[in-house]
């Protein structure tokens, strides 16, 4: 299998999706110029003293795509393949994502090119604190609010919050979301992305008149979003027939026991070798006979060379940008219903917004209240996108981008340009 990350530049994909949707809503050139490209791009050097005493320099980025509708918002990822173009693309998608679910944030993203699996906890902490110091002028609860992403977690956010707070002289929990509960984190944040994926799949199944009970599901990527979505689908009576992670892929036509698989991964760190399953090659997961495919890994995993093998009727993009534009066209020609990423995985940023509100108000909600609020937001957003899809007869991705870009464009027109 060819590597997908070199086939399609993520930033080019984001720009192509933007232009398609902007053309569909008749967006004027002046407004396009104001909202298409990032407002700020910062690349920083992150020197870190490693455990062996040597100094290793990492490269980090923070991109603020838009602050038109509110503070910039977006995760920070640690991954060997982080590039500035990838971070720009992810920040762009965050802008449209926040607008689709109608929360008052703009889009941002950050990342460090590193291999966190080869780093100790001490090295990760020192890198995180140095990176935070380097991007300090950009972040803040009213400016830009980081969150966890690939290979970052609540502990990472705690280090960022502490570093930022120490420079101000008092605790500022609202500078990040996805924090531990003990530091002002929100109940429901850890499972928010996966829960949002589940709510949009529920809505899509209702639209397609496809019973979720008994539906067969394949999940590509068994991290936070993929595993929680799988658990909720399993609880709803779906059969999870295939699951993959970075170590391998397991398959059982009758359905995998997801609670046991999650437990094994928490102990062993992988899904490979799960009992009552057979191993298949990771790329074979896409060709599995299933009703629902949940790509929950990295961007560009489904592209022109492999989209044709998909047999699913519904694709729910739990990851950011898992389908390239070429793959979109192939699936559209096959009649596959796609829940686009900026809608499907928006549960994470929605509950991040809830966490930020709770921090700012110093008043915290119970878990069921958060689940209810999240469900309303996700179901409303799905209905809004579906309405455009049906009325304008455009694919769901274009419909979602039309909704998000349209809302940002409206804010730009109302605010005007300074000076």
Q: Could you name the key traits of this structure?
A:
five-stranded mixed β-sheet; Rossmann fold; alpha/beta; 13 helices; disordered N terminus; 419 residues
Strand content: 15-25%
What's the number of extended β-strand segments? 12
Low-confidence stretches: 1-6
Count of separate DSSP helical elements: 13
- Given helix and strand content, the structural type is alpha/beta
- Average pLDDT confidence is 95
Sum up the overall morphology in one term. globular
Query: H/E series, N to C?
Result: HHEEEHEHEHHEHEEHEEEHEHHHH
Please give the CATH architecture of the domain at 192-344: 3-Layer(aba) Sandwich
Portion of residues within helices:
40-55%
- Strand numbers in spatial order across the main sheet: 9-8-7-6-10-11-12
- Fourth CATH level, the homologous superfamily of the domain at 192-344: NAD(P)-binding Rossmann-like Domain
Please outline the major beta sheet: 7 strands, mixed
- Classify the fold: give the CATH topology of the domain at 192-344: Rossmann fold
- Radius of gyration, in angstroms, nearest whole number: 20 Å
CATH first level of the domain at 192-344: Alpha Beta
What is the straight-line distance between the termini? 52 Å
Task: Report what the structure shows.
By secondary structure, the protein is of the alpha/beta class. Among the domains are: 39-176, Rossmann fold; 192-344, 3-Layer(aba) Sandwich (Rossmann fold). Helices cover 43% and strands 17% of the residues. It has 13 helices and twelve strands. It has helices spanning 10-24, 29-35, 84-100, 121-134, 154-168, 192-208, 224-235, 258-268, 325-333, 341-344, 347-361, 367-392, 396-415, and strands spanning 40-49, 55-64, 72-79, 106-113, 144-148, 216-220, 239-245, 248-251, 278-280, 292-295, 314-316, 337-339. A hairpin with a 5-residue loop joins strand 1 (40-49) and strand 2. The longest helix has 26 residues, at 367-392. Residues 1-6 have low confidence and may be disordered.
């Amino acid at each position: 299998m060819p590597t997908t990350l070199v086939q399609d530049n993520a930033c080019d994909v984001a720009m192509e999706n933007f232009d398609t949707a902007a053309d569909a809503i008749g967006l004027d050139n002046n407004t396009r110029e104001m909202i298409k490209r990032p407002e700020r791009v910062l690349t920083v050097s992150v020197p870190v003293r490693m455990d062996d005493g040597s100094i290793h320099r990492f490269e980090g980025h923070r991109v603020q795509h838009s602050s038109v509708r509110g503070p910039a918002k977006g995760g920070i990822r640690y991954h060997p393949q982080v590039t500035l173009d990838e971070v720009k693309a992810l920040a762009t998608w965050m802008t449209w994502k926040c607008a689709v679910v109608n929360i008052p944030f703009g889009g941002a993203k950050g990342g460090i090119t590193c291999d966190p699996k080869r780093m100790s906890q001490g090295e990760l902490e020192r890198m995180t604190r140095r990176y935070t110091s380097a991007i300090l002028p950009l972040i803040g609860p009213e400016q830009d609010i980081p969150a966890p992403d690939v290979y970052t977690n609540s502990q990472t956010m705690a280090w960022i919050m502490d570093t930022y707070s120490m420079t101000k002289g008092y605790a500022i929990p609202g500078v990040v979301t996805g924090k531990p509960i003990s530091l002002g984190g929100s109940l429901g944040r850890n499972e928010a992305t996966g829960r949002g994926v589940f709510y949009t799949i529920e809505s899509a199944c209702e639209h397609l008149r496809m019973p979720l009970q008994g539906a067969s599901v394949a999940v590509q990527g068994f991290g936070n979003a993929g595993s929680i979505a799988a658990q909720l689908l399993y609880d709803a009576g779906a059969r999870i027939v295939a699951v993959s992670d970075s170590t391998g892929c397991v398959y059982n036509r009758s359905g995998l026991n997801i609670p046991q698989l999650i437990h094994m991964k928490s102990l062993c760190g992988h899904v490979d070798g799960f009992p009552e399953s057979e191993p298949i090659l990771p790329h074979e997961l896409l060709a599995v006979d299933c009703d629902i495919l949940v790509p929950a890994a990295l961007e560009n995993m489904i592209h022109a060379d492999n989209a044709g093998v998909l047999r699913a009727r519904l694709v729910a993009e739990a990851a950011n940008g898992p389908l390239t534009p070429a793959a979109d066209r192939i699936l559209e020609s096959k009649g596959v219903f796609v829940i686009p990423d900026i809608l499907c995985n928006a549960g994470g940023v929605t509950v991040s917004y809830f966490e930020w509100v709770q921090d700012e108000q110093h008043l915290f909600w119970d878990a069921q209240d958060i689940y209810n609020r999240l469900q309303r937001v996700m179901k409303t957003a799905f209905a809004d996108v579906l309405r455009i899809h049906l009325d304008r007869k455009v694919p769901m991705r274009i419909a979602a981008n039309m909704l998000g870009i349209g809302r940002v464009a409206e804010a730009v027109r109302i605010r005007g340009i300074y000076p």
